[in-house]
Amino acid sequence: MHNTSRPDKEQNGTLNRKTLLRVGLVCGALGISAAVAATGAILAAYHYAKPSLPDAATVKDIPLQVPLRVYTRDGRLIQEIGEQRRVLVAYDDIPPFVVQAFLAAEDDRFFEHPGIDYQGVLRAVIKNMLAGRRGQGASTLTQQLARDYFLSRERSYVRKLKEAFLSYKIEQEFTKEEIMEMFLNKMFFGQRAYGVAAAAQVYFGKELANLEVAEAATLAGVLQRPSFYNPVSGPESAKRRRAYVLRRMHELDYIDDETYERSMAYPMQSYLHGPDIELEAPYLAEMVRREVTNRFGKEVTTRGYRVITTLDSRLQAAANHAVRDGLMEYDRRHGFRGPLTTLDLDSVDDATIEQTLEDYRSPGKLRTGLVLDIDVELNQASVRLSAGEVVTLPWSGAAWAAPFIERSRVGNAPESMDEVLKAGDVVRVYLTLSGTFALGQIPEAQAALVALDPTDGAIAALTGGFDYSSSKFNRAVQIKRQPGSSFKPFIYSAALANGFTPASIINDNPVTISSSELEEVWKPKNSTGRFYGETRMRDALVRSLNLVSVRMMMKMGVSAARRHLRQFGFTDEALPANLSLALGSGAASPLTMADAYATLANGGYDVQPYFIDRIELADGTLIEFADPRRVCSECELDPEPETLEEPERVEALIDPNQKHDAPVGEALIEFLDPETVAQRTIPASNIWLIQDMMRDVIRRGTGRRARALGRNDLAGKTGTSNDQRDAWFGGFNPDLVAVTWVGFDTDEPLGRGEEGGRTALPIWVHFMRDALLGAPERKYPQPEGLVTVRIDPKTGALAGASATNFLFETFEEGTQPRTVSETRPFDGYDQTEPALDQDDVF
C-alpha cells in the first residue's frame, strides 16, 4: 500500500502558508495574480468560518451506531438488534484490495493530498466549464468523512468551504490509515448497512477477508448512490458501476490483467443476507433486549453492547428440536387438516406457483410444496418446492394423515397416498432424520421448555413456542397456567415437614368438600375414576393419586402448606388459599416451575433464575457481570463463616469465563464471599426424600416413559390440569432441571388422553437425551439425619424380624415407625400396577 504522508502542522490547527497557496490554486487555477487573490479570500473565509468549525479531534469521540448483539455463553450469535447494521473493523483487518477499490472509485490520490485534492478540483472545474453546468464534484474521502460526521449534504459554497477547512483539520489530527478506517466504518451502503464490513455481510453474506475483488468493487461502487447502485434492487446499474471501478483499479495497477478479466466476468449475484445468526433463541433474545433497555435506556441498541447470556448453544438447539418435534407429534395424533389451497395445474404458470409457495410461510423445519402428481403404483407423491426443486413424498411420511374431525376425534386411517393428497394441493413437508420427506402442518397447540442449572439458576435453554416469527408470545415466562400434579412434589415436601413420612398410610377414597372459597361442593377424583383405598405416601406420589394429596392437605392445613411452599419461591398467584391447592390449581409459568424444581434438584437451596452472564462494550470492556448466589453445600461445614475477615472472592468467580472452574471444598469455603452463597430454605433430609420418591415416579410410575433414557439419576413428575387443558413434566438430575408445558393459548382442552406423561414428557425425554449425552450418572448424596428400616408395605409399620413381606424405607431420624407389623406371608410389594399417567381432575 502507500506510505502515510502528513503535511507539516502549525500549532492550534491553523493553516500553513504552503497549503493555503495550494488551496488558492485549487479554487482559482487562473494564474498567479488570481491565485494570490483567491488565497486572500480563502484566508478571510477561513478566519470567518473557524469559530463555527468543530474540533477535528472529536471525530473519534462521536459514537457510531452499532447494534446490540446477543451471544450464548459459548460465543454463538443469537440476535443482532438495532436500526443500523454496523460491524466495526480495524484498518489492519481490511484486505488491501478493498481499500484499493475505494481509492479507485472515490479518491485515487488519497494518500498524497492534504485533504483537498487541488488536481481533482482543477479537473472537475474544467469539465464542468466545458459541460456548461455543475456536474462532476471533487470531494476527497476526507471531505466526505467531514461532511457525514459534522455537516450536511446541502449544496452550497459555504458548506463546501467548511468541508474543505474541516478536512484539512482532520488530516492534521489523524494518519491516513486512521482516516480510511473511520471512513470505511462510517459510510452508508444502503439496506441499513453502515460500514464496509456490514455491507459485505448484507449483500454477500461474507466477512471482508472472504470477498472477491469483484465484490469489493461492487461495494465501492454502491457508495456514490446506494439506492441506484444497489446490487439487489439495481443489479444492472451496479454491474455498470462495478465495471468502472474495476477499470480504474486496473489503470492504477491495483489489479493485473488476469484479475481484471476474471472480475469483469464475475456474475453480479447478490441478495439480502440477515445477520449471521448462529443459534435460534429469539424468545430469550427479546428478554435480553427488554432487560438491558431497562438498565441502560433505549440507546443500548446503538452503542455496540455485547450481551453474553447463560444459554448453552448445544442445549438450546436440543430444546428447539424437542419442542417442535413434540408439538408435531401431538398434532399428527389429531389428524390432517387438509391442504393449504389447491391450484389448477393446467392453468397455473411458473411465476404463480413460486408466488404461492412464497405466500405460505413455513416456520421451523417445514417447507411449502405443490403436489405435482400421485404415483398410485409406488404409493408416493412428487412435490415441487421453491426454486423448482422436486422431491418425493413416500407413503411412510403421510400414513399418519387421518382426516381431522375435532380435537378428540379423527377419521379412518388412510390406506394410500391418493386418499390424502391430489395433484395441485399445496401442503407443507419436512425432511426427516432418515433423509426422506414427510407430510406436515403447523401445530395449533403450543409448548414451552425451560432448562436451568440448579447450582446457580442460570438458564441453559429456553424456548417459548413453536415459532417466534408467527407468535412473539413467550410462553416460557408469560403464560400462567395450572401446574396440576407437577405441583405435588412441593405438597409432599410440605407434608413431610408437617408430620407425614414416606410410609404414612393415607386413604385414597372419595371425599366431598364444601367451602366458601371453592363456592361449590367439590368432589375431587382420580383421572382413572378408580380409588385405591389405604395407600402409602410414596406409592401415592408414584401413582399421582389426587385424594391422597387432598387428605394430606386437610390434615396439615392450607396455611401451613402455603408457608412451606413459599420457600420454593411461589407467590400467592400459585398458592390459592383453599384445598384445591393440593392438586396444583394455582397459576404458574414454566420458568416459575423450573425455579422451584431447581430447589428440589440442588438439595434445598434458593437460587434465582438469571439469563445475562455479562455485558461488554464493543471493544470487549466488561461493564457488568452476573454474580448469582451459588449452591455450596461444603460451606455449611464452616461453623463461623462470619469470622472471615474481608473474604476475598476467588478470581474464578469474578472472571465469567472461569466461573465453572471455581475451587470446591475447603478452598472454596476459605475464599468465597458469604453473600454469594445460596441460602438453604428446605432441610436436606426433606429434599432427599422427595428426590427419592420422584425417582420412583420414573422407575415405576406416571413418568416411566423417561426410562427410555436408560439412566438411574433422573427424577420427575407429570402434571395435567382439569379437562386436559395443560400438560406438564418437570424433571431433573443433580446437574440439570427442565420443565415442559404443552397447551393452547386459548386454554382449550388438548383432547382425550393428552396428559402429562403422553404429551409433555416426550418433549422432556427428547431434550434430556441430547442434553445429557455422554454425561456420567450422578448420585444424590444422602444427608445426615436419615435412617433406613424395614417396613411392612401394607401397613407402613416396622417389619418383624421373621417377616418375609417387607421393603426398605428411609425416614428422617425420629420419624420412623415404632410399632411392629404382624408377620404376614410374602404376597408382592406392589399389587396394583400404577396407571401410565393419571393426574388431576377437580
Structure description:
The chain has 842 residues and is an alpha+beta fold. Helix content is 33%, strand content 16%. The chain contains 23 helices and 30 strands. Strands 6, 7, 8, 9, 12 and 13 form a six-stranded antiparallel sheet that branches. Strands 2-1-5-22-23 form a five-stranded mixed sheet, covered by helices on one side. The protein has a five-stranded antiparallel sheet with strand order 15-14-27-26-25, sandwiched between helices. Strand 7 and strand 8 form a beta hairpin. Helix 9 crosses helix 10 and helix 10 runs antiparallel to helix 11. The radius of gyration is 36 Å and the shape is globular.
How many strands, which pairing sense, and closed or not: the largest β-sheet?
6 strands, antiparallel
Strand content: 15-25%
Rg of Cα set:
36 Å
Number of extended strands: 30
Low-pLDDT windows of residues: 1-15, 26-32, 637-671, 828-838
Helix-strand makeup class: alpha+beta
Tell me which oligomeric state these chains represent.
Answer: single chain
Tell me the span between the first and last alpha carbons. 80 Å
3D shape: globular
What percent of residues adopt helix (DSSP H or I)?
Answer: 25-40%
Number of helices: 23
What's the overall average pLDDT, rounded? Answer: 84
Element layout with pairings:
Blueprint: H1 17-27, H2 32-49, E1 68-71, E2 77-81, E3 85-86, H3 96-106, H4 118-131, H5 141-150, H6 157-173, H7 176-186, E4 193-194, H8 196-204, H9 213-222, H10 235-251, H11 257-265, H12 282-296, E5 306-309, H13 313-333, E6 341-342, H14 350-359, E7 367-375, E8 380-384, E9 390-394, E10 404-406, E11 409-410, E12 425-431, E13 437-440, E14 446-452, E15 459-463, H15 488-497, E16 505-508, E17 513-515, E18 520-522, E19 525-526, E20 533-536, H16 537-543, H17 546-556, H18 558-565, H19 590-601, E21 605-606, E22 612-616, E23 622-625, H20 651-654, H21 665-671, E24 679-680, H22 684-700, E25 715-720, E26 726-733, E27 736-743, H23 756-771, E28 786-791, E29 807-812, E30 840-841
Parallel strand pairs: 1-5, 3-4
Antiparallel strand pairs: 1-2, 5-22, 6-12, 7-8, 7-12, 8-9, 10-11, 12-13, 14-15, 14-27, 16-20, 17-18, 19-30, 21-24, 22-23, 25-26, 26-27, 28-29
